[in-house]
């Protein structure tokens, strides 16, 4: 071995220089986004040297169900927002990473334990565990500016296990933040809320429906969580009010679920709604979403969060002032795993120099144009800055085109759209359907 090292030094000094030229990349979090980042980084060992940091002791992030709420055994806030009976609201055929299908024998709408197992299998299949430092929380990230040299990142980590609270500083060429965005509850300010005498809960802490046995439950918010939880709770509750400011859902619903407009104010035992009506309730469940949380990014990272908008991120991903800092998974109302796959490949193309990013000024212009178009032309509220819905397919394709990778197969879009249309008409039963992908364009509906 020594002989070959000496030879390579004499005859091929570039070989050794190449090794030292590897880009050290820190990946924060080992949920779906962090795993796909590690999988793609490790696929180019001649370019990247990845290290993953995960504050819990396992992969899969939010899919690791726990009955606990509040703090975990190490005093960390519980990260997962899974509840006991959750089955996916997307069919597994659309959820999969393009290079790793779910097992064929599973139904289309699967239990959360199957998603966790899928992510663990993904990590095993692509040998990702070797890169991950578990029980290690990233507490601070700061840029280190160097004269005429590319910027470095200082990543400070802290052990979370008892007796291991040591802080360590590590240096990286790039950082990919994959910390998840469904952990810090967003609760609207409502007059009178502090005086409400009933039970108040956010969907982050919802685990089992039995806690609402015989209660009159008001759920605020009718996104996926609000709809699913209303159906989960209805068999136990006396009545469920599904309150929201969208158009009324036109679907069959159990007889003890009724819809109503949003809340104006909270009374001690009830609510005043936007249409002026008053309802009596003894439980209030907020399905009002989550806040973006990046407290570990120091103020010198120059990331702004205001009104659920994170700036300045080119294509919702790459920091325009520090293009070696990127965030995966910010966008809402998406098919997450395929989009994470696209976002990661986009970042890697930029880091590897396969894609040349526009100038900082051009990237910032692009961000503002996207925001202007959303808010002025499409009439979206400013807090919808990262909301995708039907925009996600063009967005994913644009990333693929810019970075030069295979786009997500079109069948993912057509099946996603098909399910979306049927779901809103038949909320209680749409998860009984079963699909199979025929090819990259078409799917079969095996059980309608
Ligand atoms: P997470 O899974 O949250 O992972 C983030 C990881 O980062 C965690 O492991 C966390 O411990 C770690 N971390 C955070 N901060 C730090 C730090 N400072 N240092 C170290 N580690 C850190 N998607 C679907 O495709 N289909 C569905 O049916 C579906 N249903 C959902 C239902 C619920 C209730 C929720 C909450 C989400 C659902 N999703 C669904 C969306 C889901 O969030 C995404 O699919 C995806 O799993 C998100 O992955 P992530 O890696 O971005 O975040």
Automatic annotation (TrEMBL):
It comes from the Eukaryota. Belongs to the FMO family. This is Flavin-containing monooxygenase. It comes from Paralvinella palmiformis. The chain holds residues 625 to 1072 of 1072 of the full protein.
């Amino acid at each position: 071995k020594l002989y070959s090292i000496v030879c390579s030094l004499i005859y091929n000094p570039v070989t050794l220089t190449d090794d030292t030229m590897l880009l050290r990349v820190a990946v924060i979090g080992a949920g779906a986004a962090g795993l796909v980042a590690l999988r793609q980084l490790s696929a180019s060992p001649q370019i990247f040297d990845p290290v993953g940091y995960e504050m819990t002791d396992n992969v899969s992030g939010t899919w690791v169900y726990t009955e606990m709420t509040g703090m975990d055994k190490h005093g960390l806030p519980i990260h997962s927002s899974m509840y006991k009976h959750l089955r996916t609201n997307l069919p597994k055929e659309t959820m999969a990473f393009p290079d790793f299908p779910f097992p064929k024998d599973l139904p289309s709408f699967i239990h959360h334990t199957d998603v966790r197992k899928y992510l663990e299998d993904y990590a095993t299949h692509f040998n990702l565990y070797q890169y991950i430092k578990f029980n290690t929380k990233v507490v601070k990230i700061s840029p280190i500016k160097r004269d005429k040299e590319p910027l470095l990142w200082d990543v400070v980590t802290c052990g979370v296990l008892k007796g291991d609270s040591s802080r360590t500083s590590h240096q990286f060429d790039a950082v990919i933040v994959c910390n998840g965005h469904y952990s810090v509850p967003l609760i609207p300010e409502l007059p009178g809320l502090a005086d409400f005498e009933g039970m108040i809960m956010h969907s982050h802490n919802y685990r089992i429906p039995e806690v609402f046995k015989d209660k009159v439950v008001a759920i605020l918010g009718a996104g996926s969580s609000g709809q699913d939880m209303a159906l989960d709770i209805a068999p136990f509750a006396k009545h469920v009010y599904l309150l929201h400011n969208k158009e009324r859902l036109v679907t069959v619903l159990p007889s003890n679920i009724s819809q109503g407009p949003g809340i104006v104010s909270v009374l001690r035992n009830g609510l005043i709604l936007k249409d002026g009506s008053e309802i009596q309730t003894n439980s209030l469940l907020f399905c009002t979403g989550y806040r973006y949380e990046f407290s570990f990014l120091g103020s010198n990272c120059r990331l702004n969060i205001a009104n659920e908008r994170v700036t300045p991120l080119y294509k919702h991903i790459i920091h325009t002032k520090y293009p070696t800092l990127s965030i995966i998974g910010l966008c809402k109302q998406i098919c997450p795993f395929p989009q994470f796959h696209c976002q990661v490949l986009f970042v890697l193309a930029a880091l590897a120099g396969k894609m040349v990013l526009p100038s900082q000024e051009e990237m910032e212009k692009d961000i503002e144009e996207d925001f202007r178009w959303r808010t002025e032309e499409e009439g979206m509220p400013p807090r919808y800055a990262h909301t995708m819905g039907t925009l996600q397919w063009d967005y994913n394709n644009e990333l693929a085109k810019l970075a030069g990778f295979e786009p997500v197969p079109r069948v993912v879009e057509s099946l996603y759209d098909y399910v979306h249309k049927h779901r809103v008409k038949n909320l209680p039963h749409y998860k009984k359907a079963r699909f199979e992908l025929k090819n990259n364009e078409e799917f079969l509906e095996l059980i309608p």
